[in-house]
Design brief:
Strand content: 15-25%
CATH topology of the largest domain: Nucleotidyltransferase, domain 5
Function: Catalyzes the phosphorylation of D-xylulose to D-xylulose 5-phosphate.
CATH superfamily of the largest domain: ATPase, nucleotide binding domain
CATH architecture of the largest domain: 2-Layer Sandwich
Helix content: 25-40%
Bound molecules: adenosine-5'-diphosphate, 5-O-phosphono-D-xylulose
Number of domains: 2
EC number: 2.7.1.17
Number of strands: 23
Shape: globular
CATH class of the largest domain: Alpha Beta
Catalytic activity: D-xylulose + ATP = D-xylulose 5-phosphate + ADP + H(+)
Distance between the termini: 56 Å
Structural class: alpha/beta
Keywords: ATP-binding, Carbohydrate metabolism, Kinase, Nucleotide-binding, Transferase, Xylose metabolism
GO biological process, one term: xylulose catabolic process
């Protein structure tokens, strides 16, 4: 008899649910619902979207186990009674950039964070958001009895939200908080206190295949869940030599590793993965939305943008887009804006602008790959995923800019698939996750175009800051 498991991806822009065959990973049904826009969101909206995505996926009545993967770092503060204290600040909210600088200095600089925690905090990291809260909303900080992450909160809701003691998480997502150390494999409550101003309840960190209770009213087993990038690596079955490159709201390059990263520059975040290993990761604030913005500027849809980009020459005749539309995290430039360089009468063309957008996105990801390699990751194969991988121009231009063959597995929601694989693992009780085959991949190869990266590198630092107080 076929046993079904479900995986959830509660990511920045939407919630996706896949119901799959626990033995093979084949998708049986799926659903999706949008999240509200913005960098602070009432968690209740995630629950509404989850319910709607579950309904669209035909419900969970016949499902034996469920796990939730989710956007990392988001700060969810709960009071004594388990009520949300204020809307969650998401990973892409930059207001805590100053708090990040302060926290880095207070512990003794980036080296101290990299060596003790594995992560050098930037505005994305939860502990900096707690510091911002303590400084700007002391009443909210004072009422905060527990802090958890988006996926922790949804797992807790699915289990019936039975008291703060029942909150659970996993190593993968805990390692993105800034107060859980990959060196100690434990929370650093002293750093939580440094952020929030007082200690608070944090979710119990479960093992990769440890049961987290059951879905209230249904009885399906709950897995511990994990961060979306750890879930994507599990869903793609990433192994040695694989680098997962994701083009979602964030741009991400990450690799599964036996050893934790300790990057003193802070560019590579030394996260944990969802299998008991590690996930060195480099993330940008700008990725798929670069393409969305280019579509708006050109008045075309994604297919139109792709056609335009592919009709322009490599390097877009010298037109370069530095794509820091939301400020940037890699490099750390939270106040920066995007810019176009190299405009001439010849390059002031829709096709050139489209090409520059695609190349700007890929050049910023190539910088992420370089940083991973500099920290010891070996790149034999790039596994491309996320919504932006649906662009033919991205898939065809990627190998020339990234300098590696790019494998684009058959279009699936790989974060949700990874969460489902975790659920199947918990259900099986086996030592290893089920050996699901990776769906066939389109392999894209091309000669490298180092001149495209060189021109981008020359433009990368030439950006204007945002203007405080000026409406956009
Ligand atoms: N055909 C396409 N070409 C390029 N981008 C696309 C295409 N289809 C969807 N996208 C973009 O992918 C993004 C959503 O990707 P997703 O990985 O689901 O994001 P997230 O996980 O951050 O919510 C959106 O910005 C959307 O516009
Ligand atoms: O901040 C990070 C990783 O450190 C992001 O990857 C978030 O986890 C959001 O992911 P998407 O919703 O963009 O996929």
């Amino acid at each position: 008899m076929t046993r079904l498991v479900a995986g959830v991806d509660t990511s920045t822009q939407s919630c996706k649910v896949v119901v799959v065959d626990a033995a093979t990973g084949d998708v049986v049904r799926q659903g999706r619902a949008s999240h509200p826009d913005g960098t602070e969101v009432d968690p209740a909206a995630w629950l509404v979207a989850l319910r709607s995505a579950i309904d669209e996926a035909g419900g969970l009545d016949d499902v034996a186990a469920v796990s939730v993967g989710g956007q990392q770092h988001g700060m969810v503060c709960l009071d004594d009674a388990g009520a949300v204290v204020r809307p969650a600040l998401l990973w892409n909210d930059n207001r805590s950039a100053g708090a990040a600088l302060d926290l880095v200095a207070e512990l003794g600089g980036p080296e101290a964070w990299a060596e003790q925690i594995g992560v050098v905090p930037v505005a994305s990291v939860t502990v900096t958001k707690l510091r911002w809260l303590a400084e700007h909303e002391p009443d909210h900080a004072g009422r905060t009895a527990a802090v958890c992450l988006p996926h922790d909160w949804l797992t807790w809701q699915l289990a019936g939200a039975r008291g703060l003691d029942a909150l659970v998480t996993d190593r993968g997502d805990a390692s993105g908080t800034g107060y859980w150390s990959t060196v100690d494999d434990a929370y650093r409550h002293d750093l939580l206190v440094r952020g929030l101003g007082h200690d608070a309840q944090v979710p119990t960190v479960l093992g990769p295949r440890q049961e987290a209770g059951a879905v209230a009213g249904l009885g399906a087993i709950l897995g511990p869940g994990t961060g979306d990038n750890a879930a994507a690596a599990l869903g793609l079955g990433a192994g040695p030599g694989d680098v997962v490159v994701s083009i979602g709201t964030s741009g991400v390059a990450c690799a599964v590793s036996e050893v934790p990263a300790r990057d003193h520059s802070g560019i590579v975040a030394g996260f944990a993965d969802a299998t008991g290993r590690y996930l060195p990761l480099v993330a940008t604030l700008n990725a798929a939305r670069i393409l969305d913005a280019a579509c708006r500027m050109l008045g075309v849809d994604h297919d139109g943008l792709s056609r335009l980009a592919l009709s322009a020459p490599a390097g877009a005749g010298g037109l370069v887009m530095v794509p820091y539309l939301e400020g940037e995290r890699t490099p750390v430039k939270p106040d920066s804006t995007a810019s176009l360089h190299g405009l001439t009468l010849d390059t002031a063309e829709p096709a050139h602008l489209a090409r520059a957008a695609v190349e700007g996105l890929l050049c910023s990801l190539a910088d992420c790959l370089d940083a991973l390699e500099a920290q010891g990751s070996v790149v034999r194969r790039v596994l491309l995923t996320g919504g932006g991988a649906a662009s033919e121009a991205v898939r065809r231009i990627a190998p020339s800019v990234l300098g590696h063959p790019v494998h684009v597995p058959h279009r699936l929601e790989y974060v949700a698939r990874g969460a489902a694989r975790q659920a199947a693992w918990v259900l099986s009780g086996e030592a290893e996750p089920p050996a699901w085959e990776l769906p066939t991949a389109e392999v894209s190869e091309a000669d490298p175009t180092p001149q495209v990266r060189a021109r981008y590198a020359a433009a990368r630092e030439l950006t204007l800051d945002r203007t405080p107080g000026v409406a956009s």
